[in-house]
Design brief:
By secondary structure, the chain is α/β, with parallel strands linked by helices. The protein has a domain of 240 residues: 3-Layer(aba) Sandwich (Aspartate Aminotransferase, domain 2). It is built from 12 helices and 15 strands. The strands form 3 sheets. It has a 7-stranded mixed β-sheet with strand order 4-10-9-8-7-5-6, sandwiched between helices. It has a 4-stranded mixed β-sheet with strand order 1-2-3-13. A 4-stranded antiparallel β-sheet has the order 11-12-15-14. Strand 11 and strand 12 form a beta hairpin. Helix 2 runs antiparallel to helix 9, helix 10 packs parallel to helix 12 and helix 11 crosses helix 12. The two termini are 32 Å apart. The structure holds pyridoxal-5'-phosphate (PLP). Pyridoxal-5'-phosphate binds next to helix 4.
């Protein structure tokens, strides 16, 4: 394979891609074209949470491929899998989150949520949080905090104010349409909010008539050891953004609200959000599979495996800190160079580790949520072997 994607006529996102050429993937394993087996401790950054090639998902996909693919733009025709995915999602969520708009990606879910908050309130401004990452389309980038990554693309959305995650909420008043927050911040290094802080945020939004948006594109769908991260905090958002693991490996996003709020997108003007592939039957077949599997996850096993990995990582002298919730890990090391060494050694040892975008001196872990205890033991053994002595 060429060194850079650009050399074969494909866009690059980085001058130094890992460039692994994957032949197949099954369960916790990736297999390269040259026959190497690599334990996947990343899951495509939180996508393949139910393991690669999970038959519950692939059977639904095969059936759908044999039935039909795209038949019409979203919002005109209906497919039974799209309806089923929406019903399943509602059945897993609190009553007020009963209406789903399926879209194509996490970033599009965020775009839809921002538009819906504006439409609902008639206001324009947003509160977002330092460390937050919400995607790379212009609206999603506007509410993301990494200034260096935004600089070349300015101007973005106006009227976005950034507050400290877990910090003072004093500034929030009724001039804002919405507050957007990752329930657990991912790219900032698995930053876990205080329960009281999220509850205060909910109360502030209620007081000022602000739409509270939880971005669970990465921390939702089981990653934190509960079906949705907000369940840890006893706080329900007005809009929930999902993506990544929701499609079981097929591209998808979704934003979910009350029916009353979502109606704002179909009227005055109609077609308030249009997306050709939203609710695509193949994508929502993947979602049906993922949501069925979500209900079968063993939360006790996830917690036991997570706690065991955490303990073993913390006991290693090259690891400075671990932050963890469920099977979602931030592992801090001495420096960015040590992290890169570790990721590269991981590939030699047969385990995939990966960087954060915004925290250079730590690596992330987000292994499959349904790995067996034997697989979990093997996974941590390979990770420990990859750490510097
Ligand atoms: C919290 C969060 N929101 C939104 C996104 C954007 O999702 P996508 O890359 O599917 O557009 C991501 C992607 O990493 C994310 O982690």
């Amino acid at each position: 394979m060429a060194k850079r994607f650009l050399d074969i006529g494909l866009a690059d996102t980085t001058p130094h891609p890992l460039n692994l050429e994957i032949d197949s993937a099954e369960g916790v394993w990736l297999e390269t074209v040259d026959g190497r087996k690599i334990f996947d401790a990343i899951c495509g950054v939180g996508v393949s949470s139910f393991g690669h090639g999970n038959k519950v998902i692939t059977d639904l996909l095969h059936t759908q491929v044999d039935s039909c693919l795209h038949t019409m733009v979203y919002g005109e025709f209906i497919n039974k899998r799209t309806a089923e995915a929406g019903e399943l999602l509602s059945s897993l969520l609190p009553d007020q989150l009963n209406t789903t708009y399926f879209v194509n990606s996490g970033a599009e879910a965020v775009e839809g949520a921002l538009k819906l908050a504006k439409k609902h309130t008639g206001r324009r401004k947003f509160v977002a949080f330092n460390g937050g990452y919400h995607g790379n389309t212009s609206g999603a980038l506007s509410v993301s905090s990494n200034a260096e990554r935004k600089a070349p693309f300015m101007p973005l959305l106006e009227g976005v104010d950034f507050l400290e995650f877990n910090g003072s909420l004093f500034q929030i008043d009724d001039s804002y349409a919405g507050v957007i927050v990752e329930t657990v911040q991912g790219d900032a290094g698995v930053r876990i909010p205080d329960k009281a802080w999220l509850q205060e945020l909910r109360a502030k939004c209620d007081e000022a008539g602000i739409v509270l948006i939880f971005d669970e594109v990465q921390c939702g769908i089981g990653r934190t050891g509960k079906a949705f991260a907000f369940e840890h905090y006893g706080v329900v958002p007005d809009i929930l953004c999902l993506g990544k693991a929701l499609g079981g490996g097929v591209p998808i996003g979704a934003f979910v609200s009350s029916r009353e709020m979502m109606e704002g997108l179909s009227d005055n003007p109609k077609l308030g959000h249009i997306t050709t592939f939203g609710g695509n039957p193949l994508a929502t077949s993947g979602a049906v599979g993922a949501l069925r599997l979500l209900t079968d996850l063993d939360w006790n096993r996830i917690e036991t495996q997570g706690a065991s990995w955490e303990k073993q990582l913390l006991a290693h002298n090259s690891v400075k800190t671990v932050r963890r919730i469920g099977l979602y890990f931030y592992v801090e090391m001495e420096s960015a160079d040590v992290v890169t060494e570790t990721v590269m050694k991981g590939l030699d040892e047969g385990v995939l580790l990966f960087w954060f975008l915004s925290v250079p001196n730590a690596f992330r872990l987000s292994p499959p949520l349904n790995m067996s205890d034997d697989e979990a033991e093997l996974g941590i053994e390979l990770i420990l072997k990859s750490l510097p002595l």
